[in-house]
Amino acid sequence: MFHSLSALIILFISYLVWRYLKLPHLFKTVLSHGSSDNSIEIYWQRLISSLFYGLLPLVIIWTTDSEPASFGISFNKKGVTLLSGMMIGIVLTGAVIFNYRKPGNLKDFPQIRKERWSLSTAVMSSATWIIYLFAYELFFRGYLLFSLNGYLGKWPAIAVNIILYSLVHYHKGWKETAGAIPLGFVLCLMCLMTGNFAAALIAHVFLALSNEWLSLWAHPSINLARKSNKLMNIN
């Protein structure tokens, strides 16, 4: 009961941090070096949210002398976990391929609105995505899901997790909100079967990075050398 309530409180705090805790203006001025793009804000949003989604559950587990594996924070069944995560990720990448050129997708992705992407921008964006998704899945398909599973049982835990996972996508529109339901179900089921959150992490990384890279290639306002032999202008 304690961990389930703690998970709900962490979710509420972390969501508010992700949505509303903006980068202090002084830091933005210093770090952006006069750049007008939003890359610094995106990096801040991902990294500060990672601290709350990832660190708070670990602190609670550590201070209550709980076993991390009881909350899906382990890497047992490595073969099954890796294979299942990659299979789901490949399916999600296939869905991205059919969607990445659509105006609705290009309106939101890539999240960094920078006319000229450098190699360092691509690396930094990918790295912060992975850090954020590690913390995000550690929370959603780790601490939250497994604490609910221990308190409510398998199917109620999956149902509550899906509802909450869908709700945190509400501000992105009904398509992402609805899409989070089947994805959430598959990820929850796979993580409970493998006993850890790693399969969801792998699948989510596939989804985020494939969408970012393909959207980056297709976006008309981002300077890429699409008509030359170079894949990207990294000057």
How would you sum up this structure, described in words?
This protein has 235 residues and is mostly helical. The chain has one domain (2-218). The protein has helices spanning 2-20, 25-32, 39-63, 78-97, 103-108, 119-152, 154-167, 174-194, 198-218. The longest helix has 34 residues, at 119-152. It is globular. Mean pLDDT is 89; it is low at 225-235.
Taken in chain order, the helices and strands follow as HHHHHHHHH
Q: From the helix content, strand content and strand pairing, which structural class follows?
A: mainly alpha
Total of helices: 9
Number of spatially distinct domains: 1
Q: If you compute it from the alpha carbons, what radius of gyration comes out, rounded to the nearest whole angstrom?
A: 19 Å
Give the biggest beta sheet: none
Compute the number of strand runs.
Answer: 0
The coarse silhouette is globular
Low-confidence stretches: 225-235
Task: Please give the structural blueprint.
Blueprint (H helix, E strand, L loop, with lengths): L1 H19 L4 H8 L6 H25 L14 H20 L5 H6 L10 H34 L1 H14 L6 H21 L3 H21 L17
Can you give me a brief rundown of this structure?
The chain is mostly helical and 235 residues long. The chain has helices at residues 2-20, 25-32, 39-63, 78-97, 103-108, 119-152, 154-167, 174-194, 198-218. The model is unreliable at 225-235 (pLDDT under 50).
Fill in the keyword field for this structure.
single chain, 235 residues, 9 helices, globular
